[in-house]
Amino acid sequence: MYKGMYIALSGAVLKQKHMDVFAQNIANANTTGFKKERISFKDYLIPADNASGVADDGRSMSQLSQVATDYTSGTPFRTDNALDLSINGEGFFALEDDRYTRNGNFRISSDGFLSTQDNIKVLGDGGPISIEGSKIEISTSGEIFVDEISTGNIKIVDFEDRSGLEKSEGGYFTSKEPGQELVPDIIQGHLESSNVEVIREMVQMVTSLREFESYQKIIHALDEATSKTINEMGR
Fold it and tell me: 79 near 193, Cβ under 8 Å?
């Protein structure tokens, strides 16, 4: 009976984690460039109680396999701000300190560099991008014109194996491996929306909640059966 308890408990724990991931996705549905997460599980058989210990009884427990980021592009939306940029297709904006982002909501820092709202400098083909002027135009190829004078190109990179990317606060990603430069395809005056589909996330969250409640009922029923067995044996 204890095996059944462990099976139900493993399912309840993972459904709780599932709901946490859905809640995190929904909370960031309006965060520019946010990439939703997905959780996957794996099963393993419980060995049978016999002398060899090698057979199985067909019952399995679940455990967390991984929480992976879904890098599907969000939909660009218009802002008409010259410093708002959206990547059309794959890739990330390269930032200083080996950070990367899909959030192109940029600004001019106090020291005259193109930066994120957190004051992290955006990189170009020659390092941080200095902006000195008033009229800023950025072509689809990422070339920056300040007062109609070319000042460099925005650096866009991607990774063959994105599993090495680590998500950090503020919508940034870090990687120990350098990214490969891409030919940019940039839309000026637009930002990329989150790739979270709120309705779908809510439906999946409700489904996970019902499954979690089912596991709770199973645990309660097994606990009552165990208590009843112990009490009868005691008599």
Answer: no
Q: Around Cβ 174, how many Cβ atoms within 10 Å? A: 14
Distances (CA, A) of 227 to 221, 224, 233: 10, 5, 10
In angstroms, the CA 59 to CA 52 distance is 17
- Rounded distance, CA 186 to CA 192, Å? 11
Strand partners, 94: 100
The span from the CA of 167 to the CA of 124, in Å, is 22
pTM to 2 decimal places: 0.78
Give the up-direction half-sphere exposure of residue 58: CA atoms within 13 A in the CB hemisphere. 0
Rounded to an integer, what distance in angstroms lies between the CA atom of residue 143 and that of residue 129? 11
Residue with tokens 């190829």: 141
For residue 223 the two structure tokens come to 């606990």
28-56 per-residue burial string, b: 16 or more CB within 10 A, e: under 16: bbeebbbbbbebeeeeeeeeeeeeeeeee
Question: What letter would DSSP give residue 48?
Answer: P
Can you tell me which residue has the tokens 């459904």?
Answer: 15
Chain segment 117-130, per-residue pLDDT in tens: 999 999 998 899 99
Decide if 159 contacts 88 (C-beta within 8 A): no
